[in-house]
What does this fold into?
Amino acid sequence: MLYGSPTPQRRDAQRNRSAIVRAASELMLSRAAVLMPEIARRAGVGQATLYRHFRDRPTLVAAVVSEQLARLEADDACTFRELLGTALRLYAVMRPLIAAADGLDRRLGAALTPALRRAQQQGQVRPGLVPDDLALLFAMLSGAPADAERSIALLVDGVCL
It folds into this structure.
């Protein structure tokens, strides 16, 4: 799991954390310039509550990415191609929200490793692909233009069969 993983909490704290991640997802995936107070307002919590759950923006962004990937992985019909494409799109959107991407490429690569292993067993990816290659894909995308869709398509096509 990426940063911002939940620890055992009271039900109201769990609801607050879920509301914060949901609000952050909606706002961050729609536009780049999102302030933490705006996320707290959208979630219906105070700023202190937001910062109790997420100490800073990189931690919150990582939780949003983790939540989005977990949602996809829970879908049995989702292929590795779809999962990788979505993860690369998330990276392209979230990267500008974190100074120096804060190791997001490595964390995303690590989060996708179990799905990569399954895809290898099912013959969905090119032979010889190793988990470190996933982080490299994200790093390669960091130099892509703002509209990275073509770059994402090329990366996914280069990896998946």
